[in-house]
Amino acid sequence: MVKKTTKNLADWIYAYSHINCYLGRDELLWCFDLYSEMLDVFEKYELLINAEFIIPSLIWQGPSADCLGKYKHKEIVRKIPSPGKNYMKKDAIKLIDAEQNNDSVFFKPYRWEINGYGVIYDKHGNPQCVPDVITIESFLSGNFEIWIETFYDVWLSHNLNGEPQPEVYQHNAPRLEQAMQDVEKILGRPPVKGNKDGPEHSDYCEIHGYQLRNFIDDFDNTIVPIDLWGHVKMD
After folding, report:
1. Which ranges in the chain belong to alpha helices (H)?
2. Nearest to 43 by CA among 85, 11, 9, 77
3. By C-alpha distance, which of 148, 71, 78, 76 is closest to 110?
4. CA angle 4, 7, 13 (to 5 degrees)
């Protein structure tokens, strides 16, 4: 039985510096276009299905057009039918029109996300539908950012215990890599690279582009076992 990590096993962040203060109607609809196209890709590879679109809270932007606005604490949850293309943009228009009021010029979510279920395959090629195989989040703080995260070790050549899983890897890792390459084309940019001197890494693995690799012990060249909390397992 595959187990979900307590933190994301890996993430990829895409930054848009030209959106750095507020989202007007046009910018928000542009975001929903990106989301719809990404969702279609992840549905194609069975990485994000039965999805929900969630806005944890809203921000109203006042007539002064400054960056502060005010919070409106209201969670919005939308079920997304499959396929998702064009649905999200249509729903966004309804959402904006419904939430807009006479005292505001701009409507903007501070953060929003898509999550749902995805399919991963065991060593025999049997599918298993589990939550949060892929999640998508967006943040507006300084710059507009899109975060794509995963919480399972099926993309690694060895599981987190350090045990080889070649069949699991072959059934799953190529799907993730191809899907992320397709998403990069949609977003029009590679993910932000934070470590200029070597590969990116999380608490669980090294991140080489869209390939994930287990940590290797420099002393004896063996796989470093990691627990679900991202800590090295000690003998």
Report:
1. 25-44, 87-99, 166-187
2. 85
3. 71
4. 115
Q: Is 57 helix (H, G, I), strand (E, B) or coil?
A: strand
Q: Which long-range contacts (CB under 8 A, 24 or more apart) does 116-120 make?
A: 116/48, 116/49, 116/50, 116/51, 116/52, 116/80, 117/48, 117/49, 117/50, 117/51, 118/42, 118/46, 118/47, 118/48, 118/49, 119/46, 119/47, 119/49, 120/2, 120/152, 120/154, 120/171, 120/172
Q: Which pTM does this prediction carry?
A: 0.84
Q: pLDDT tens digits for 63-103?
A: 444 444 454 555 666 666 655 555 566 666 666 665 555 44
